[in-house]
Amino acid sequence: MKHQRSTAQWREMDAAHHLHPFTDTASLNAQGVRMITHADGIYLWDSEGNKIIDGMAGLWCVNIGYGRKDLPEIAKRQMEELAYYNTFFKTSHPAVVELSHLLAEVAPKGFDHVFYTNSGSESVDTMIRMVRRYWDVKGKPQKKTLIGRWNGYHGSTIGGASLGGMSYMHEQGDLPIPGIVHVQQPWHYKYGKGMSADEFGLLAASWIEDKILEVGADKVAAFVGEPIQGAGGVIIPPASYWPEVERICRKYDILLVADEVICGFGRTGHWFGQQQFGFTPDIFTTAKGLSSGYLPIGAVFVGNEVAATLAAGGDFNHGFTYSGHPVAAAVAHANVKALRDEGIVAAVHEDTGPYMQKRWREAFSRFEHVDDVRGVGLIQAFTLVKDKASQTLFDNWGEIGLMCRDIFFRHGLIMRACGDHIVSAPPLIISKDQIDEMIATAVECMEIFEQKLKERGLA
Ligand SMILES: Cc1ncc(COP(=O)(O)O)c(CNc2cccc(C(=O)O)c2)c1O
């Protein structure tokens, strides 16, 4: 595509008109944005022609990789045939029906119904309303409270931001809304010192039981968690955690919700993160990998018992203009079908996922200020630490992470700093050679990082 402006002109216009998410506008405009102009496979190019390895698949979402020729074609055809119609008022259309049928095929057993949204946040807010409606219909309207986790991330809507456990979000907008409480996250490295993984997993799950008893089980509607906390820094719970969480939820008759916005559609090497950790939720929320980011769409997978209960309650008074948007649905259908029929999810499970995890551990465990090197499938991380032997974290949590992230960025590699966790989630189509290329670049950057720590007297 011929670009008609210089980087400088774009930067000036962006600064003049565009408010960015999660951004300090003044500091951004002091340095100017990086204009990403096109992408292919796992690579991005900026307006200066720099080639960048996208170790984050956009925002954990471009599972199928950039530059597909089929998806734009399908979007074009759908847009020409039926660019829009709604799914309110007893209408539907072929694209959303075909997608719903396909999603029921790839979903774990017992999830035959989906509700559509435009984002992960809208999926989470939809789930909150569904959960409370469920208990109304069950004749237990006092069961309203949802339990989330500190450092969990569930989006930026009022409901999602409240359910998430990011305190810097709660401070803006007087959150959380009533009826949402939090328990500590299952971060073994920080909260389980001296305990085995399994012991800590059971302890972390017990915090949920403590909270249920504190609130009163008769008032608790659901527990909500990401199989792996993504934006919280790829916090992978011990194997004992999720089965115990499910046991506790069943014991107290509380709905179990998995937020699969990041873990869904192959990220862990399973279709959904719940399958990686061996638990069955009652509802799970998705977005991102559903369309691989080619168009905005989210979907709430509703367990058959919950769906039947909601149906018994008559109208569920909730939905969006673009719920099941025809073009987004058609693209999502093609995306999911390709993830399945091209064996992309299977390859993550059997081939590139294990390869990445082996190379990631080999490459980073040796660095003096890196610990807790971890990952599963194609989501991985490590934590930058002041002293590995004593497992001491750096002061000013997040400052060192940003310094490290900027070194990657300057060397043509996008990885994400979540506090002092360095995380990566590349497109699922990454090849073994590209994994080697990405890791080699990252290792070079980590050597520069260690040197900078010394220069700053931090090492
Ligand atoms: C688990 C989870 N749930 C809900 C959302 C909200 O989705 P939407 O953004 O589509 O409304 C998310 C989104 N996750 C997300 C979004 C933007 C940035 C980052 C980051 O790690 O920097 C992560 C998420 O990771």
TrEMBL record:
InterPro entries: Aminotrans_3, Aminotrans_3_PPA_site, PyrdxlP-dep_Trfase, PyrdxlP-dep_Trfase_major, PyrdxlP-dep_Trfase_small. GO terms for molecular function: transaminase activity. It holds the Pfam family Aminotran_3. The keyword Transferase applies. Its cofactor is pyridoxal 5'-phosphate. Keywords: Aminotransferase, Pyridoxal phosphate, Transferase. Transmembrane segments: none annotated. Belongs to the class-III pyridoxal-phosphate-dependent aminotransferase family. PANTHER family: AMINOTRANSFERASE, AMINOTRANSFERASE CLASS-III. This is Aspartate aminotransferase family protein. It comes from Vogesella fluminis. The lineage of its organism: Bacteria, Pseudomonadati, Pseudomonadota, Betaproteobacteria, Neisseriales.
